[in-house]
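tool_log.txt
---
The assistant was asked to compare two proteins side by side. It first ran the structure predictor on the initial sequence, then on the second. Raw inputs and outputs are pasted verbatim so the downstream comparison step can read them without reformatting.
(1)
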Amino acid sequence: MSAENERIKVELEGVPETLLWNLYNRAEEARRPGSRLLDDPRAVELVDRIDYPFERFGAASMAQWHALRIRCLDDEVRRFLAERPGGTVVALGEGLETQFWRVDDGRVRWLSVDLPETVEVRRTLLPDDPPRRRSLACSALDLRWMDEVGDGVASRDVMVTAQGLLMYLPEAEAKGLIAACAERFPGGRFLFDALPRAMVARNQAGALGSSDGRYRAPRWEWGMDVTEYRKVAAASPRITEVRSLRFPRGRGLYALAPLSHRIPGLRSLRMSIIAVRFGGDPGSAE
């Protein structure tokens, strides 16, 4: 295992490389003195340890927006753990997300599911600590990961999260994944973020990149405007509740974030954070 002060070279491309972009923005907000929106010392440590040209992402102009998104997601996971102490969180496509350390209640069980090359990086930089924190090298669409949630875990005690993942899947596959989780984890939850259609269209047209043009996000496949979130319920008859979460208040223009879903013009540019609840018999996972 590498020494703490040794820089570790990370080489990724395509969708897996986005984990470094997300990490960079979290760390930049966490470094901010004074009124920062996110405390994430592990993100800062990781950026300092990784040998990677983070400058290719350009100025961290999106750092505050990333922090607001993360705060919204973290708060919903904390609400789940307050209701289901000792619950299980399955984090699909987690990358180098450090959410476990931000929300840990001392009892949560955490399963990180990601592609093999990403899990290799994660295990190098954030080694597993079983039984409470484990990683599994597996595509989110390979539903065999469901068998790894744990014997005897009640399905109502399971929250599946998909941060920064579903936009890379065609709509049918994204909603199919949600439906499969609803079937396997009755009484459980699903939490994900969705980009607005206009932003996805700009990405597909090649109009989105870093501020200096060196980095361009991989192709996004699925977008959903904030006014469409209720349509997620059609993915499965087991879905009993779909909520669009309210963003926390930010600095400057981002002070409008909590009201962004109500402001014409901003609504079509706003990412949605969607919390889904499953109904059915909340027994043990099969």
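(2)
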Amino acid sequence: MQADFEARLGACAEAIERTLDSLLGPEPLAGEIARPERLLEAMRYAALGGGKRLRPFLLMESARVCGHEGEGALRAAAALEMVHCYSLAHDDLPAMDDDDLRRGRPTLHRHLDEAAAVLAGDALLTYAFDVMADEATHPDPAIRMALVVGLARASGLGGMAGGQMLDLQAEGRYGASEPLGQADVRRLQAMKTGALLAFAVEAGAILGGADHDDRASMTAYGRALGAAFQVADDVLDVESSPEALGKATGKDAAKGKATLVGALGLAEAKAERDRLALAAELALSGFGSEADVLRAAARFVVERRS
């Protein structure tokens, strides 16, 4: 099953790369006036040529498990990846995490400039909703509306963006801050990282027209997986190298970031990571062997080295 998982993950990454390459082409869409060359270059640099594409993979696999495959799922997955790529471009900026390396190459603001990185992020976020709302993604307007609302809430004030603000506050950017307890760290991480990962799975269930119980199971899987992913990231920041990870390591402790490694210690954080991955697998107990690849994804989150 692990070989099947790796093959599917690789095939999804290639399909997403092709879809993003096509969506980020030079020809304007109906209603667009022009696509400025430098902005398009920045968007393509941010979105193409790297990453595991885990979020789009989770969307497409959960959709498949719920009985939906095809171009629409690929477009929805590409839209989700645009939001993720926008968030990385903005997180790397000097005003945020001030990183020089992403996926083993210079961050976007180092490759071009800060203004290009800001505008590329803005444009990727906006374009993601364009793609998600387009009839080509799904013929049913109610399905498209559910996808758009879900993506907005996962990526905005009560999700990823809100979690980033909590992270900055925890660093003491806005004055002295008390160390966060476990519950606060879990909430921060559920918003900043977990919300978009959980939505990936929920979006697949929406596309597949899953019933209430199946959708609830998929959502529980996505939330546990998202939490496990972030704890695994915290552990990698301590144990991995910049060469293996493709970005700087040791940043969390240096910046006083709120992590479960800091709150629990390394050994207990690893145990919590493993517990969450197992909870993700168990959430799929109502599904048969068609969900084995999603179960393998939970194990991948624990075992990954980058």
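---
observation on (2): The beta strands are 101-102, 105-106. The first strand starts at residue 101 and ends at 102.
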